[in-house]
Write a structure and sequence with these properties.
Layout (H helix, E strand, L loop, with lengths): L1 E3 L2 E4 L16 H7 L12 H12 L4 E3 L2 H15 L6 E5 H6 L9 H7 L10 H18 L5 H8 L3 E4 L10 H11 L36 E5 L6 H10 L3 E3 L8 E4 L7 H4 L4 H11 L5 E4 H8 L8
Parallel strand pairs: 3-4, 6-7, 6-8, 8-9
Antiparallel strand pairs: 1-2, 4-5
Helix pairs in contact: 5-6
């Protein structure tokens, strides 16, 4: 998706297989995005198409909804494909939308609707990219700017730069996790092992060296419902990226992560936990709390679904 002067001027979709040896399809991820191994079975590998993708990106600003996740995927795919990659300027519409809209959830469908470009098929790659572009365009209008440099100066956060990658550089955590999973002959757990009665565990201190530009850095995060990982593992991952965790919703809470298969549309249907209902009441009284699905949280903190809980 290419944007020039506040308009989408070009669209292109690449269908590809993951790098060889790292192409297992976790059923929970398939449930989210609907992409099966058979759908990409005849497609080229990531390493075969990345040069074309890099050429399309050029020196442009790369915009994504939770950009840290998308840039991390590109970096990890380059590492395991043993390919170099360019430095990339990027902007995160999760962070920017928090500064531009007042919403119960900053999930892509909610923000796209607020931007006047509602999604019909969430997780379709081309439609998600189009929604993200329209969100960025609308955010610029909200703040009365026409250039991304002006928007960065106005909002002060949400923009970053990932360094170039050279084969032989230290590997990212995502790649190390994937290598460890493969080396241990990891298996995907049966569905009945994903859901356990949640035990709160302890609330670790936030990582003082975490990237302050991360969408969870400085947030106070509470968890509710059954997750695909232990509550303690979720808290540890949140603390690692600079979040403070807590065991109940209070006036300090800024993010509630909801398990039990919650998706953003459940905010409209009413399929909510008691903590989520409490959050909506606090929002009505003026407290700014964001509700996030477990899948969105996993994208924010990186890594893979744990093999067991």
């Amino acid at each position: 998706m290419t944007v020039r002067d506040g308009r989408i001027v070009d669209e292109k979709l690449w269908v590809m297989r993951p790098p060889e040896g790292f192409d297992h399809f976790d059923p929970r991820n398939v449930q989210i995005h609907g992409i099966t191994p058979e759908m990409v079975g005849q497609a080229p590998r990531f390493g075969e198409v990345f040069s074309e993708i890099a050429q399309a990106m050029g020196d442009d600003l790369v915009v994504a909804h939770n950009a840290a996740f998308d840039l991390g995927v590109i970096r990890s795919a380059l590492e395991v494909s043993e390919l170099p990659g360019p430095a990339l300027r990027h902007a995160c519409t999760v962070i920017l939308s928090r500064k531009s809209y007042d919403l119960p959830s900053y999930s892509l469908p909610f923000v796209a609707e607020a931007a006047g470009a509602p999604l019909e098929h969430h997780h379709d790659a081309l439609e998600d990219a189009r929604a993200c572009a329209n969100i960025m365009i609308d955010i610029g209008k909200i703040h009365g700017v026409q250039r991304v440099e002006e928007l960065e100066a106005t909002l002060g956060s949400g923009f970053s730069r990932s360094p170039a990658y050279t084969v032989g550089d230290p590997l990212s955590r995502a790649t190390r996790d994937a290598q460890n999973w493969r080396a241990s002959a990891g298996t995907i757990p049966r569905p009945d092992r994903w859901e356990v009665w949640p035990q709160e565990g302890s609330n670790p201190d936030p990582n003082p060296d975490a990237d302050p530009a991360h969408p969870l850095a400085g947030q106070c995060v509470v968890f509710t419902g059954n997750l695909g990982m232990s509550r303690q593992e979720a808290k540890n991952r949140a603390a690692a990226v600079g979040a403070q965790t807590a065991s109940r919703v209070t006036r300090r809470t800024t993010v509630l992560v909801v398990g039990d298969g919650f998706v953003a549309s459940d905010l409209r249907s009413g399929r909510l936990t008691s903590k989520a209902r409490e959050v909506l009441k606090k929002r009505e009284s003026g407290q700014g709390i964001e509700i996030v699905s477990e899948a969105e949280f996993l994208q924010m903190v990186g890594g893979t679904w744990p093999a067991s809980v």
